[in-house]
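User: Fold this, then the next.

Assistant: Folding the first:
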Amino acid sequence: MKIINMFFWVSFLFVVSVTAQNKATVSIVKNYKDWNWEEVYVAKNPYISVAVVPKAAGRILEYNLGEVPSLWINPKLMGKSYQPTDEVKMSEWRNFGGYRLVPLPIENCSVDKDRNKAQRWPPPAIIGDSPYRAKKGIDKKGNETIEVTSGVQELPVPSYNGKLKSFVYPNIIEEKLEYSRSLYIEPNSSLVHINHHLKNVGDKKVKRGIMISSQHVSRSNPELTDGENYVAYIPFSKEYLLPNGKQYQVMSSPEARWRYISRNRFKLDKNNPDDVAKYYNHGTNWNGEVATGIYEVEYDYNLMAGFHIVSSESWICYVNKTNNTAFAKIMEPYDRSLEYDHGLNMAIFCSGLETGYLETEVKTPLYILQPLESSDYKEIHGAAKIQNTPVLAVNMAGIITQKLNYKNNHVSGSYGVFVASTAYLVAEDVHGNKIDRIAIEKVHPLKPFNLNESYSKAFKTLKIVLIDGQNKEHILDEFNK
């Protein structure tokens, strides 16, 4: 009897241990990774870690797949926090790095010397770099959440006039906004679910949206400027053009690039043909269409410029080529019936600030909000190891870098997966009836999934289906004859 009881308890403890290891947990950690912030909210599972810092404007400053980081952190601002005030000068942008927020449109968030609506840099600080309130929560599905809330952002904000050496203040406060965000991670995947909430807490109608962007690691170490290894992929279609009728636009000019480099990096000489060939251009990092309907941008430290485009398939993907790690964002589909700032839902930005970073920017629609009315916007982030680039597609199951192909009784494809699962090859006939379901291998986010299988039966459709531990099916790819 004692032996049976001992066996029972050992088995029970093993099951509990495995379950605990696979669980997605949220904890509050003091001085996480020696960042010197008192409290950091950390969500972890066996594949990813996500860290949110309330004192750093509630920013996500870590989203790692295993030990590989996706987010750049400003080393000069670790452990710092600032009083909630919008009396900030251009040189006082408190850019902590990581995953940040800017209200849209930015062009009417401030006032100029004549108190007309204008843009200000740095962006509004209460919502952008001031401390946030934070707490742990539980959503309706039982997921542990990290929830952050900004202070009340009053608009327009004052601007600093260098000639007057004083701030110019608006005549009246016209808008009051409050931003909050809730996120959770799944237990056996690399997926991060994020819900953005923008509330009009003023007494007047407003038209606002938000830009939510990730500042990504863009060099192997501080001594190297190897931006060619850090890229972003975005899908596009002729169906979705910018308001000016162009497919995309690089937001700089050859003159601006030349001037910036010569003033901030090293002296250039327009009588030197090598200098002109290399730097008198928009940048050589806008790599163009590297696969059908897929645009690639690589990081360039000697360029501060944005790339504007409409993401036709509602995803964008950053890749660290030094270790073939991909971090993708899936956002709400582009809706032509809604208004977007500058007509786009997506942008990529190369920054030359500090050590530099490549920024992937998601832009929500502009919502008309009545007093006390709110808008919600959902994003899902996923990370995976991949075998090769370019990234051709992203879905809720994973990343496709070589599409499912069938030739001479051979099935092939290359993927990164978001969900720990078993991969199956499923064959269907012309009526959609399953002919075969063949187990291929166990897959998870920390290793690429390369498919090479023989299959000789007649079929109409082949699918790669991932079945997770809860017996839920995720379609990764599909081939139709």
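Now the next one, as you asked:
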Amino acid sequence: MNLKRRSFLSVIAAALGASAVTKTAQAQLYTPVPEKWNETVDVLVIGAGGAGFSAAVTAKEEGAKSVLLAEKLPFVGGNTMLCSGLINAVDPERQNKLGIKDSRELHLKQTLDAGDNRANPELVKILTDNALDSVHWLEAHGMKFKDEVYQAYGALYPRTHVPVEAKGQGYIKAMVEAAKKVGVNVQTNLKLISFIREKPLEGRVLGALFENAKKEKVYIRAKAVVLATGGFAANREMRSKHDPRMYSLTTTNNAAASTGEGLLAAKDIGAYLIGMDYIQCNPGTPPGKKYRGVLHLDVSRYIFVGPDAKRFVAEDERRDVLRDAILNLPEKFGYTVVDNDGFLHNDAVVQETTKKMVKEGEAWTADSIEELAKKMGLNPTALKKTVDEYNSYVDSKKDPIGKNERNLNHKIIKPPFWACYSAMSVHHTMGGVQINTKTQVLDDKGNVIPGLYAAGEVTGGIHGTNRVGANAVADIFTFGRIAGKNAAAESKK
């Protein structure tokens, strides 16, 4: 079943009335129960990113006898491997050392408010109450974090934990080792085609149909299935259907993984999709350029400037506010400016990428702000004035644009200075299948679809209209573990 056929059925539904064609359309989408299954397991997890790995490892730890983790790509890791790796959690041990006062209640409130209170409060509470447990669970499986926490881009408060190893690589390495240790069967080159339910829109989910590298059909049966295939940020047609501004944009770290077939497969068996027009962007690659500049992770160490060399938004704002501010610039991109301390605060991968960008003219470095401006094609006097004014705001702890006082603690004064493009790229899709607090997938009437669980970016209702920066990694490991635990329990029934 491809998108064109789905679109055709949608047109029929619109013309004749959805209720008149729902049963017919769903019958055409239905994949019958096969006479023979290729493989049978207790728990089937689909998608080998952070959510999938944590679900699979937990299911094994909770007593599931056989767990299969299926990945469509030739390698594991998904978006987790490519993400910044930053994770939010209220952590008294780390935060108290830095004089940071925090609470789970504040994390809950900020997450709900940032999503315009469109998220499910029960799910958000689970996230904020259990994020630190996820950090500790990861540490118990070999993941290492730095002692320092800070406020990441769009994170709204200094509770962001930073991996020792660059980006999300440490998570996947730790999860691969954990999966080997507990005996998870990891299989790659298995692309999800459809779920198999007892009847169209009725009964249990019995398993799933996949296509392997040889284009052969592979039927896998399971007592419980966990969907962890990620979002749809890499699917231009799907994302622009919900937000037309997203059509021409590049993506940040979604690559080939987040194409949305898991969402469509769940929808075909009756899953209800929510919040599909809530699509998040982050500073990324301008159209026609090669690299994504990432000098913006710690909001206390950089400024954004536009083509006029002036700041145009508080750098510690919500991600949707930052998105719209940049998309409203004349060229739809601005620039990130840091000093050498800010540059060195980034991990080795970011530093090396920025140096490559400098060689290819997509980033710039210079020993003075004026020289940097000339290389960027901006007015040197204007940029120098902007930087000097910003440094004075650090001294006074008051920013006319509104940057929070706690983030006005690093001047841009130490040469060499660095800058890169900051366009907007599609980063995260907040919409997806609706789940309950047990991560069971729900249909459009709010009923549980028996045997089907979901975790990670494939779900909706956890972030509302706008995701708090560094909440996604907390999301995938928190709800991945819950899904794995409950799927294991169901497999024993």
